[in-house]
# Entry
Amino acid sequence: MARARDHDYRSGFTLLEVMVALGLLTGAFLAVAQLLIVAARATESSRATTLASNLAAQKLEYLRSLAWGYDIAGVPIDELGASPPGSLIVNTTGFVDYLDDAGFWIGSGPSPPPQAMFIRRWSVEADVDTVPPTVLMLRVVVLRRGVPSAPSPGDGHSWVEMTRILSARARRPS
# Structure
């Protein structure tokens, strides 16, 4: 009879075993949670890089679609005006626009609106060796709003370059 009672006493888990199991389970959950946070950050970074690349390609395609050639009489046609020096470095009116976090246009001008998440700058540079120019260099750079920083001028945010695209366009007399 004493043996049956002794067996019933040992049939469950001790408090120490339950605490150790809960500690291991909590550690596993914390590791998985941290992995999910890292994956979410990587996904957001990838989304922003893809969007920036698409925005740059979109502007480059627009610039390439503008007329730059010769008419039937051989007179140059030029819808692409040359950009001033430094238009890829500073916001230059006519060579910059601002986009929101979904890539929609929200303005242009020398300073970004508060809701701007991307700055898209471009430059159009003609070769100086020929008159009229026969080659254009088209460059587009897209920057993304970074974290707020104290020393940054202007809006108080740092801007991080996400992508840069370069293309050349030739014009030949017919």
In short: The beta strands are 68-70, 76-78, 96-99, 105-107, 118-126, 135-148, 157-170. DSSP finds two helices and seven strands in the chain. Helices lie at 2-9, 15-65. The CA atoms of residues 107 and 113 lie 7 Å apart.
